[in-house]
Design goal:
Layout: H1 2-8, H2 12-21, H3 23-28, H4 40-53, H5 56-69, E1 78-86, H6 94-101, H7 113-117, E2 124-128, E3 131-143, E4 149-154
Antiparallel strand pairs: 1-3, 2-3, 3-4
Helix pairs in contact: 2-4
Amino acid sequence: MLVLQQLFNLGDEEVEFQVNDRHSFEEFVHLGVMNDIPNATTVAFFRECLRKANVIDELFEMFESYLRNQGLEARGRQIIDATLVPVPKQRNSREDNKEIKANRVPDGWSESPKRLRQRYLDACWVKKNDINHYGYKNSNCIDAEHGFIRRVQCS
């Protein structure tokens, strides 16, 4: 689902909807009608776990290796694309934001793990074309000739 998110510039809620709605997306993630499609919160949590484990680059290297083994080696020009993945705006107090910036979990948040999972502690505000956006910035390296994503960096 993360690959689809990158390919089509989808947010967490949108990728959940599209996998449920499009048969081709459902087949790509190898989940059939009888399987549960991960929801947006699960997608965000999984991406965050991969980022913290520092394995996103390794996974995309494996994906690129798979493409090469299928005879789909991409060697054309490269395009660097920076996209924003929107997340719900956080309604934190100033004290909570100070704790988050200091890489600490604010008081009382640990007592409610379900609520804590819905917080995007690493998301930030970014200004693009004089418009403020809240979320994650994804930088993609794309093969211009074949359209394959070669590298991804999420920050």
